[in-house]
Design goal:
about 25% strand; 52 strands; 15-stranded mixed beta sheet; alpha/beta; about 675 residues
């Protein structure tokens, strides 16, 4: 093991650089001669403008400043980053500053690599199809290696840039269309056509007697033609493609199938055209962030714009290419539809004359709850009633869930999923502050089975232009939040479609397990002020939670949910909030300046808002809030005296502190009437 030296002013262009008096002029030169186990010391605080530096062997890269000042803390107020040598890129170029690389085969055994006391600035990582980290990590990317420690470094003014992707190839779109129409043909065979028309004749007797219009006979040829038209209307030629698997994540740094440790690092002023403007987790890695400051980072204007500070996307389909796009997932599904067709059996076993009658009655009065139908039964009932678009949506979900149930391990690795279900990203003694994103999770975003443990950390003054001003968790992920403070975060929801989008000024979650202990959401002052977590005219000023569908992927309704259920195994979720928490003085229906929004209509649950959705595969929610009357108090929701859309005939006086909506049972509770849910002072709800 040799110590080698670098000095921009006194360095040489050749040699071994193995004495303090014979340093290299560039880091590149020192890396070229270094061997496994060496230490490279940068002697000065100059700016090193080089191409992408690559470390692919056990190595330590450290500044002489940190060797002389081992307790120097770049996260401390007043620290001068210019005391650290700056690693950057040549003017006019677009390149990452540093990549630390292993291989999938040597991931656990490679290293150690240690980076200490450096300033990583001005990296410009460009996503290309051949880039080893998919363009992730504008400053540093750690790829396929776990034994890495990055300590007391500063990441600033780094960014990632996503690649143009174009549209779905027409051949792939047409192949998917043909496979879907063929699946409809396998369900609605000539025999099924004849039998259904017989059932329709029988149903019409009952419908006419009850005063409902008769149903027309169905034609298999018409059905196949109309389903094809509906497909083209939903997924027509030239449909834009999108990236799916971590491309251009992590403006400051990214871990790509890696589990390094970041300790006392500052991430400030970075941006990403992907998730995690400050730092991102991509693939099956669970890094540690200890005593870090992640401050003032921003998502880009294009790409997947979640996670202003931190972004996590773990459980990717490890058997598919890492540079995954929507059409790659569609092609996988297309290849599995023949197997789905083989398990259909007799469609006639799925439906009865009473199903046809009840569905026709509901369509005549759709304000009433819809019959609880799904799968092939739902497809057939929609086809009978010429609901082509709805039939296609039901078919997409049936096909997706069936294909994944049968063949998920052709795309995902079972051992990776098992590890993702039990292993967590660790964030401790850190601060996430003043970060911004154009979508979900101003401070942190974790989705796709990403577990996160956050302890003794502060989440302050972050903003999301959608759900989760401070923290956002979704799609089968999980979080333990312990001993934390969430103050002054804002969910300024941009929702032009008018959908039921959660606010969650402090925290927002959907379909995840959460344990929240000894954590404060909101200020000690008994008023809505700068430290209050707030959302715009949406639900959940302090905390918003949904147990519902995960929504559309690649134009296919509820495909994210199909993955969550069939691959990740998420069928039930729980939220536990202990008596050491305080969810106080937050607001739903407020501007970023904490002014009340006039005529608010969606601002329910100033403290907490929970909804149990009616989507057939929505996970069933168990919720417990200890000492709820004191844990959740002093919050304000601007929507008051409203007629419940969940519980027919009920007028809700206030939902300042608590709002729970169970769409399955059609019940709504707030602090006014939640006494029936209390057990020894704890709010105890189970869907």
């Amino acid at each position: 093991m040799t110590t080698r030296y670098v000095n921009a002013k006194t360095g040489k262009t050749g040699g071994k650089f193995d004495t303090a008096l014979t340093p290299a002029r560039s880091i590149t030169a020192a890396l070229k001669v270094a061997v496994a186990g060496d230490t490279i010391v940068i002697q000065d605080a100059e700016s090193y403008k080089e191409g992408e530096l690559v470390i692919d062997k056990p190595l330590t890269l450290v500044s002489s400043f940190l060797l002389a000042n081992p307790l120097a803390d770049p996260t401390a107020a007043g620290f001068d980053p210019k005391k650290l040598p700056e690693l950057t890129i040549k003017s006019g170029t677009r390149a990452r500053v540093l990549r630390i690389s292993g291989t999938p085969a040597t991931r656990a055994s490679a290293g150690p690599v240690v980076i200490k006391g450096l300033r990583i600035r001005g990296g410009r990582s460009l996503h290309t199809s051949t880039e080893p980290a998919q363009g992730a990590g504008g400053g540093i990317a750690v790829v396929d290696i776990d034994n890495v420690t990055i300590e007391r470094c500063v990441f600033t003014d780094n960014q990632t840039e996503t690649a143009p992707i174009g549209s779905w190839p027409e051949a792939d779109r047409t192949a998917f269309r043909d496979a879907v129409v063929d699946l409809v043909g396998a369900i609605f065979t000539p025999t099924v056509e004849s039998f259904i028309n017989t059932l329709i004749d029988t149903a019409n007797f009952a419908l006419v007697l009850a005063g409902y219009p008769k149903l027309a006979h169905v034609s298999r040829a018409t059905i196949l033609t109309e389903v094809g038209k509906a497909f083209d209307a939903k997924l027509g030629p030239g449909r834009p493609n999108h990236w799916l698997a971590g491309q251009a994540f992590g403006g400051g740094a990214a871990t790509v199938w890696a589990s390094p440790t970041f300790r006392r690092c500052l991430f400030r002023g970075n941006s990403a055209e992907g998730r995690g403007a400050g730092i991102a987790v991509v693939g099956y890695g669970w890094p540690t962030l200890d005593a870090c400051l992640i401050d003032g980072n921003r998502s880009g204007n294009v790409g997947r714009r979640d996670g202003g500070g931190v972004g996590c996307e773990v459980a990717l389909p490890g058997k598919l290419p890492r540079n995954l796009s929507e059409i790659d997932m569609v092609k996988f599904l297309t290849s599995k539809l023949a197997a789905v067709k083989a398990i259909i059996g007799s469609p006639l076993s799925y439906i009865s004359v009473w199903d046809i009658i009840n569905y026709a009655k509901w369509l005549a009065n759709p304000a009433a709850p819809s019959p609880p139908v799904r799968g092939i039964k739902a497809v057939i009932l929609d086809l009978i009633n010429a609901r082509w678009s709805e039939a296609l949506d039901h078919l997409f979900y049936f096909a997706s869930t069936s294909a994944l149930s049968l063949n998920k391990w052709d795309a995902w690795n079972a051992d990776e999923i098992k590890r993702a279900q039990t292993t967590a990203v660790s964030i401790s003694d850190s601060t996430l502050s003043k970060n911004w994103c154009a979508d979900d999770g101003g401070g942190l975003y974790a989705s796709v089975l990403s577990r996160v443990d956050i302890s003794k950390s502060k989440v302050l003054q972050n903003t999301a232009d959608s759900s989760g001003g401070g923290l956002r968790f979704s799609m089968g992920s999980a979080a333990n939040v312990s001993g934390c403070e969430l103050l002054g975060n804002t969910a300024e929801v941009n929702d032009p479609s008018g959908k039921l989008v959660a606010g969650g000024g402090g925290m927002s979650a959907r379909n995840v397990d959460l344990v929240i202990k000894d954590t404060r959401l909101g200020p000690t002052a008994a008023a809505i002020g700068t430290d209050s977590n707030v959302c715009s005219d949406h639900a959940g000023g302090g905390f918003a939670y949904q147990a519902d569908t995960e929504g559309m992927l690649a134009g296919i309704p509820d495909l994210w949910t199909a993955i969550m259920v069939e691959v990740f195994g998420v069928r039930a979720v729980s939220v536990m909030i202990n008596s050491g928490c305080a969810i106080v003085h937050n607001g739903a229906g407020f501007t970023p300046r904490r002014g009340a929004i006039g005529s608010a209509v969606k601002s329910k649950g100033g403290g907490v808002w929970f909804v149990q959705g009616i989507f057939p595969d929505a996970p069933k929610l168990t919720l417990k809030i200890d000492a709820v009357a004191t844990v959740v108090s002093g919050n304000i929701a601007q929507t008051r005296g409203y007629l419940s859309k969940v519980q027919p005939g009920a007028t809700i006086a206030t939902a300042n502190d608590v709002c729970i909506q169970n769409l399955i049972a059609r019940q709504e509770w707030t602090e006014v009437n939640y006494a029936s849910l209390l057990k020894a002072g704890a709010l105890d709800f189970k869907a």
